[in-house]
Amino acid sequence: MPLSVFATIHARPGCEAQLRNGLFNLVAKVREEDACLLYELYESAEHPTHFIMHELWTDEAGLLAHEQMPHMKEFGELAKDWFAAPVELTKIAK
């Protein structure tokens, strides 16, 4: 069963540009994953530090595999100081 995920991301003030650029670069890599059906980044028009990633995965196993991908680990290490808070995931089963 496909799994939708909304990731709420908050940039540390002053780190918006770095996080935005890093996320846009990440999107291209994630879209190549076999289990990825959709991976879209949105930026709040009202709050420049808020981003939302809309994701659609083939299933929970695909999401779990995504979390272990080298590019995800690399991004996590690169961007760790750009986040104001941990990324909040909301999973929605269709």
From TrEMBL:
Report the residue ranges that make up the ABM domain in this protein: 3-92
What's a single GO MF annotation on this record?
Answer: monooxygenase activity
Report the Pfam families cross-referenced here. ABM
Keyword Cell wall biogenesis/degradation attributed: no
Q: Where is the signal peptide?
A: none
Q: Which UniProt keywords apply?
A: Monooxygenase, Oxidoreductase
Organism this protein belongs to: Spirosoma taeanense
* Protein name (database record): Antibiotic biosynthesis monooxygenase
